[in-house]
Amino acid sequence: MGDLKLPGVGSGFPIQNFVDITVQAERAPKEQQLARRANDIEVQLSAYGGLKGVLDEFKSSLKTLGEEEAFQKRSARLSESGFVTAKADKNAVAGSYSLQVEQLAEAHKVGTGYIDKADADKTLGSGTLTLNIGADESFSVNIDKDKSTLAEVATAVNNAEDNKGVRATVVTDDSGSRLVFFADKTGTDNQITISATGNADGEGGASLASLGTVTDIQAAQDAIITIDGAKVTSQSNEIKDAIAGVTLDVKKMSEWEDSSDHTQGRKSLTLTIGYDKGAVESNLKGFVESFNKVVKTIQQLSAYNPETERAGPLNGDGTARNLNSKIRQLLSESVEGAVAPVKSLTDLGITTKQDGTIELDNDLLKTQVADNFERIGLLFSTEKGVSNKLDQLMEEFVGKEGILTSKNESLNEQMRKLEQEADDFSEYMVNFEQRTYKQFSAMDMAVAQMNQQLSSVISAFENMPSFGSSKK
User: Fold this and answer.
1) Cα–Cα distance measured from residue 210 to residue 200, given in angstroms and rounded to the nearest whole number
2) What pLDDT does 458 receive?
3) Of 233, 217, 222, nearest to 189 (Cα)?
4) How many CA atoms lie within 13 A of 188 on its CB side?
């Protein structure tokens, strides 16, 4: 009952109403001030956050263009698909090559003799399997008598800790069941040979030694291709550096020129190695789009509408103006180390429009990419190229210690202090309300005492004898 607040018992005044009005008069101005300050900080945080976001995106587009490899990438095109795929790195020399796929690499596969399907789950007994891969690799697997069915032998081979690259499985067909072993790797260097010893202690006197007799299911085979008439043999279907900087992955043998008698050999595919110009064109278009997004964001945040008399959150902000000015300066100047006819972005067809954004002349860009591809690389990717200069500028604004990064941290710190101030004010108001209630209650008690004293005085006067009256 200690918190129960009643009307004034002495005065009859609505004390709680007086307290509420007094407290609200104290609270409202400060709360409004705190709300305005919080809103101002949030607006600025949002504005700087939006600007930082588009600058980070712009920085990513610069990174793509600034990498030296961006202008050293090679494209690899084949005249027909399905037979070979090709990848070319920066070491590949532009040119065309005639290819023919004569043979695919195959992994060696062998099978044991058949046993009746009904006996597939019977044990073959204890013993040792020795598996050889090529001339240099081998491993042995010891088989227990109680774990010597075909499936259990296959599992033992597959799980062997020192397995050098042989897998086993049980295959059942119309002839019965047998173990099939196959090499992990293709090529004649990975042929499998198997030997087995057994103790003839399997069911019905079966012996593990029977697994030592195998027949070829699929012969080990190397891939064979011809490049401009020269024969290339490979253990794998992936053939690296037969052409410098090029990786070929053969998928299917080339078709015959004459399908009837095969006397004319196989058809040739044409492999063309060139610069990856399409990727550079795409990256340059992305650069223009990202730049324009930066400009439009700055304009939107810095704008002032005289009709509505409303200003953007960064209107008058020196940071936005400074950034815009520096970017324009870098875009308009020639690049030290660049070579004519590509010495500035203007030479690529990138020009500034009246609204501050830039536009790209696609026809001029295609011409320069076709005729001066490597010189475009000098414009962007050299130490003093466009990408590095703009990247350094972005670091100045959005880097770890950049201007926008620092502003963002400062605003967050202001917000934390404001939140603490709001918490302190809430505590102050609790105490203020308690003090105010006590003051009004004290006033009520004082009024009650005064009323009581006044009543006593009035009563005393009423009981006094009247002067001049005669009493009997």
Assistant:
1) 10
2) 80
3) 222
4) 7
The two tokens of residue 411 are: 């605003």
Question: Is the separation of the CB atoms in 150 and 223 below 8 Å?
Answer: no
Q: Are 411 and 44 in contact (CB under 8 A)?
A: yes
CB 6 within 8 A of CB 445: no
* Residues in Cβ contact with 72 at an 8 Å cutoff, skipping those fewer than 6 apart: 90, 377
CA-based nearest residue to 277, from 391, 390, 367: 367
For 379-411, the pLDDT digits (tens) are 887 778 888 888 888 888 888 888 888 888 888
From CA 435, how far away is CA 430, in angstroms rounded?
9
Measured distance CA(172)–CA(454) in Å, rounded: 119
The DSSP 8-state label assigned to residue 7 in this structure reads -
Among 2, 4, 3, 15, which residue's Cα sits nearest to residue 442?
15
Q: Are 221 and 106 in contact (CB under 8 A)?
A: yes
Residue from 54, 41, 40 nearest 320 by CA: 54
SS3 384: coil
* 130 closest CA partner among 53, 214, 61: 214
Q: Where are any strands of DSSP class E within 255-398? A: 269-275, 304-305, 310-311, 350-352, 358-360
Strand locations in 47-143 (E)? 74-78, 84-88, 95-103, 107-112, 127-133, 137-143
Q: Which residues pair with 234 in a beta bridge?
A: 223
Report the length, in residues, of the chain.
472
CB-based contacts of 400: which residues, under 8 Å, 6+ apart? none
Confidence of residue 184 (pLDDT cuts 50, 70, 90): very high
d(CA 323, CA 121): 79
Query: In whole angstroms, what is the distance from residue 314 CA to residue 304 CA?
Result: 10
CA-atom Rg of the chain in angstroms: 45
Find, among 124, 221, 137, 228, the residue nearest to 177 by Cα: 124
Q: What is the pLDDT of residues 33-50, one digit of tens each?
A: 999 999 988 988 888 888
Beta bridge partners of 359: 351
Report how far residue 472's alpha carbon sits from residue 173's, in angstroms, rounded to the nearest whole number.
149
Q: What is the pLDDT of residues 137-178, one digit of tens each?
A: 999 999 999 999 999 999 999 999 999 999 999 999 999 999
| Cα(9)–Cα(444) distance, integer angstroms | 7
Contact 132, 140 (CB under 8 A): no
pTM: 0.58
Contacts of 37 (CB under 8 A, 6+ apart): 418
- Residues 133, 163: contact at Cβ < 8 Å? no
